[in-house]
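Morning F.,

Quick status update on the modeling queue. The single chain you submitted on Monday has been processed. Sequence for confirmation:
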Amino acid sequence: MKHYKYLIIGGGLAGDAATRGIRELDTEGSIGLISMEPDPPYMRPNLSKGLWKGRPVEKIWRKTEERAELHLNRKAAQLDPKKKHVRDDGGDEYTYEKLLIATGGSPNHLPFGNGDIIYYRDFQDYKHLRDMTEHGSHFVVIGGSFIGSEIAAALTIVGKKATMVFPEGAISESIFPGDLAHYLNDFYRQKGVEVVTGDSVASVQKDGNRLTVRTGSGRAIEADGVVAGIGIHPNLDLAKEAGLKIDNGIVVNEKLETSVPDIYAAGDAANFFHSALEKRTRVEHEDNAVHMGKLAGRNMAGASDSYTHTPMFYSDLFELGYEAVGEMSSKLKTISDWQEEPFKKGVVYYIDDDDRVRGVLLWNVWKQLDNARALINEEGPFKAEDLKGRIKGE
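Structure tokens below.
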């Protein structure tokens, strides 16, 4: 039985950030961290971005072991909040004074594939795919949103042939306005990516070292590897079984406290009140995990901070890049302010029914996140002419 003043379940960015938040206020209190991954915490976005562009692997590690005792390759299997007791899947037991649940999410899986599909999520997945690129030349990428678009670009950057297959009509169609999403289809095709829209993957079968991907339309695609990025679901089983309030995630208040005393939650699995959007939500991005985890750690160590951060997210798509804040949904009305030729550089504003700005997409526009956040906090209403030229890139 190990006792920690602070116990963290989850070895992602939120868990690491919590150790940093704790140490800002408590330099001595013992910290334990249980992680399902065999690797210590790292900067997850590098798995589909920087590492494929030459960033050294040693640069991604967070050095969490300098602040906490790590229990890797272990899953917290049982939590008793009354006894403040945790048991992992290896039979080891832990007690705590304050607990953070930062269990993140797990990739959604297809009902076939028999282990032949890489559901891209962690460092081991990166190593597996990178090893496969040493021998294979053609890869099928299932999914056309964040991970799918980044992995297809990454594979192409290292000289591989990528075929994207997804049911939507265009890349990231659910978040970008239609004209921008369809532009990305053409842009990716110009880069050499085969973009198969309006289709699904019906089966993946292995024959020797080769894989055959069959689509819903009946097409057969021969490949050396198959990667899927079709979203994640939050890991909530532990919290549910312990009796914490659940509603599209672990419900937390503004201090990131759960419904059970001395238990906090942060990161992908936490449902929090987004103060700028004035509604509860979950956010599955690095910036939210880092800021939320750090604040949770500080509060565990005695602070009483409120989480009011408006998280950002970003992506790199070949030489295109963007940063964004707020709600990104193509279901919202959008106003595009292209500052050079269309789709090269500009700002897209997402507007709700009350003509308030709910999201801002900075497309190849940099150092404007603070202005974008400020705009989301304004009450409006806004017309198109109010927003043209409102945020300009450098």
